[in-house]
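Two records follow; treat each independently.
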Amino acid sequence: MKKILIITLLIFAISAKSQTAKQNYSFSLEQAISHALTNNYQAINAGRDIESAQQKKWETTAAGLPQINAGLDYLNNFDFTLQGVSGNAFNPDGDPNAISTFAFGTKHNMTGRATLSQLLFDGSYIVALQASKTYLQYYQNAKQKTDIGIKEMVINAYGNVLLSEESLAILEKNKTTLSKTLSDTQQTFKNGLIEEENVEQLQITLASINSNLSNVKRLNDIALKMLKITLGIDLNDDLKLTDKLDTLTTTNLDLAITKDSFAIDNNIDYQMMLNFNEQRRLELKLQKSKALPSLSANLNYGYNAFSNTFSFFTPDQKWNKFSNLGVGLNVPIFSSFGRHAKTQQAKIAFDQAKTQLVETKQKLQLQYESARSEYEFSIEEYATSKSNLNLAERIEKKQQIKFTEGLSSSFDFSEAQRQLYTAQQNYLQSMVNIINKKAALEKVINKK
C-alpha cells in the first residue's frame, strides 16, 4: 500500500511538473509574424468566425432543400367535448325546440405522421442565397484585416523589445564610463586639485542614469510580455529575439515602396466597404422580392388509431393509413404600403452605403499619403539622428578630455553628457520609427 502511494505521488509530481514546464521560443521578426498569424488569440477567433459563417451559409441553403419531419401525437379525452343539435335533427317527430347533446370520438387517439416539405419558389430565398455568400466574404475579409493588424502589432512589439534592450545596453555602458570618471574625479578632489562641485555634478548625472536604467528594465519586461501576448504564448515562457535593431532598420530602408501608385482595390478596408455596399444592395433586393408570390409543397403520410382503452401496441389494434399532397401559393396583394416603406428604407440605406464608399476612398488616399510622408520623414530623421549622435560623441569626448585636464567646468561636461544621452535615445527611436512607419505604410497598401 505504501509503494502504491509513493508511485501515485511521483506520477502526480511528474504530471504537475510537465504542466508547469516553461517553453523556450527563439524568433526572428518573420518567424514571430508567422507564429502570431496562427496562434494569436484574435487570429484564432477570426478563423472561427469564418467557420461559423460557412455553417450559416449552409443553414441558408438548407432552408430551400427538402425538409422531413416526423411526429407522434397522443390524445387522452378525459371528458368529451359535447356537440348540441336540435331535438328533431335525428327524429322528425321530436320537439324542434329541444336540444340534444352527444359526443364524437374515442377515449384514446394516437397519430404517427411524416411530412416532406419542399420550397418551390420564393424570391427572398434566392436573395438569401446571394446574401449568404456576401456574409461569408465579410468574415473572410475580416480575417484578412485581423491578420494585417496582427502583423503590424508584432512588428511594433518586436521593435519595442529591441529598443528597450538596446537602451539597456547603452545605459549600462554609460554607467560604466561615468562611474570610472566619477571615481577618478573623486580621487582628484581628494588630492585637492578640483572643487567638490565637479564631483557632485557627476553624482547627479550618475543618479539620473541609474534611475533611467531601472525604468528601462521595467519597460523591457512590459514590452516583452506585450510581445508574448501578441504572439499567443504564455507569459511565463522564455522568448529570445534573434534579429537586431540595426539589421531590421537596414532591411526596412526602402524608399522604392513610396514610388509606386496606391492601388486602393488592394486595401482591405476598401474591400470591406465594397462588401458592405453589396450587403445593402441585397437588402434592397430582398425587400423588393417580398412582393413576389411564393410556392411550396407538402407531402404527408401517416397512420392513426382510436380506442377506448390504451391498446395501441397490441397486435389486434387497427391503424388507419392516410396520405395527402398539398401545394400552397401565397400572393402578396396589399400591405397598406408597409412593404413599400421597408423598400424605401432599404434604398436609403443603400444610398448611404454608396456615399460611405466615396468617403472611404478619399480617406484611404489621405491615409496612404500620410503614411508615406511619415515613412519618408522617419528615414530623414534616422539620417539626422545618426549624424547628431556622431557629433555628440565627439563633443562629449572632447569635453571629457578638457574636464580631466581641468580645462573645462563640470557643468560643460555634464551638458555634453546629457546631449550625448539624448542623441543616443533619439538614434534608437529613429531606428524603431523606420520599422514601425514602414509597417504602417505596408498595412495601408496591403503589401504581402
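The next record belongs to a different protein.
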Amino acid sequence: MVDALGLLRRGLNRPEKIPRYVFGLLVPSSNWGPEWRRRDGVVRFEPGGYASSPRTRPEFASNLYHEVAGLGNVLDDHLEEPPARSLEVGCGYGRLSPWIADRSESHVGVDPDVEALETAAELYADVDGIEFVPARADSIPFPDDAFDLLVTWTVLQHVPNETIRDSVAELRRVLSPNGLAVCCERTRPPADNHVWPRSLETYRHLFEPLDLVGVRERPVEPTWAEAMDTTRPAESVLVFRG
C-alpha cells in the first residue's frame, strides 16, 4: 500500500519538488520529474536520488558516516577473512563502493545506470582493485560462485515483485558456496510507488538454501527527517551465509 500521508508530508516539507513529481508521473519517459524512474522494469535514480534526503553537505556527510559504520560493523562481525572478490549490486555512483573495496582483494560494482557507473569509474579511478560494470540484478554477467561477498544496500526493496525471484536467484548463483550476502532492505510497511517492503520470512525463503545468520535494525537517521518520519520502522540488515 502506498504511503499517501508520507507523500503528502514530503510535499509539504519540500513544495519545490511537487511540480517535478507530478510532471514525472504524467510523463514518465521525461528527464524532468522525481528523482527516480521506473524504466524497462527497473527503478533508477537521478544522481541526487541515491541519498536524496540530506539537504546540506554536512547532513550528507553524517548520513554517509552512519551508512558506512553500519555496513562496516556487520562485515567486522561476519567476515572471518578478507574476501577474494566482492560484488555490490545496485552501486549507483559508488557511494559505498570504496569502503567495500577496502575490505576485499578485488571489488565489482554493478548497476543498470550507465551514466552513474561512468561517474563512479571517474571518481574512483585511483582505487586499486575496483571496477564498475553495467548490469541488472536479474542478469549478472559473471560465472557461478564468482564472489565471496555480496552486498545490496537498499536495492532489493526497489525491485518489483515480478522480478524479485529472478534477481535473488542471480545473487545466489554468483555467490560462492561459503560466501556472505549482506542485504539492507525495508522489511515492514509502509510501501511506496517505488518501494516493495518484504518480510524477514519472505527474504529467508527467497535466499534458500542460504542460511540467515544475522539480523539487525538500521534505524531511520536524523538526516532523513525532511523526507520521512524518523520514528517509522527501521530497515533490516540481513546476513546470509552459503
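Discussion point: Residues 57-78 form the longest helix (22 residues). How would you locate this feature using only the C-alpha cell line?
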